[in-house]
């Protein structure tokens, strides 16, 4: 009866004396915390074999170099994209600067409307645009005039938010903004025109349209259209009340 008990005690003691095997995650965590672990332990590197993606084996140093090269290539691609974006932004800034200067030099509303249309079509490649001014009474101006209540009722949150938007809108909103051209418009960028020092503050709305449904996306920034709306609002306030 005592022999099985003694054997069991020996197995128990052996399990206590023998260290538990480390899990791969524990080894990985330790190496992350001790990145210099292999310094001075070159003999360990000779015993390590890492599977290559093609099924071959390479040394740890070779694999590390390969990973660093891949990471460097990714960084170069990111830098190239950043450089391309910087060049595009520079071109956009130059076109915007010329448009703003031309708007400031406009002598009257008729010239302002002409400058906007010519610049948007030829300099910015905007296929459709609509400039609508608001008025409580009929006005004889070289631009489309709509009653404020009608605009707010038709465009709803687009007007009440007071913020520029990009993306797609309802067919009713497209019909109101672009009228006979609405059927060709796939996406829009819209900027409500308002100025706190003007009376009334809501002056109108500027809408840009593209046949491409993905040209103006809800996820894209509104810096361009918002800036243009701010400039145009101030110039309109000055010309309408002069």
Question: Short description, anyone?
Answer:
The chain has nine helices and seven strands. The protein is of the alpha+beta class and 242 residues long.
Amino- and carboxy-terminal Cα gap = 114 Å
Largest sheet: 5 strands, mixed
Oligomer: single chain
Number of helices: 9
Structural features, described:
Helix 4 (60-104) runs antiparallel to helix 5 (109-123) and helix 4 (60-104) packs parallel to helix 9 (223-240). The model has no long low-confidence stretch (mean pLDDT 83). It is built from nine helices and seven strands; from the N terminus they run H-H-H-E-E-H-H-E-E-H-H-E-H-E-E-H. The protein has 242 residues and is of the alpha+beta class. It is 54% helix and 14% strand. Strand 6 (187-194) and strand 7 form a beta hairpin. Strands 4-3-7-6-5 form a five-stranded mixed beta sheet. A two-stranded antiparallel sheet has the order 1-2. It has helices at residues 2-17, 24-33, 42-47, 60-104, 109-123, 148-155, 157-161, 171-178, 223-240; strands spanning 50-51, 57-58, 128-134, 144-146, 165-167, 187-194, 202-210.
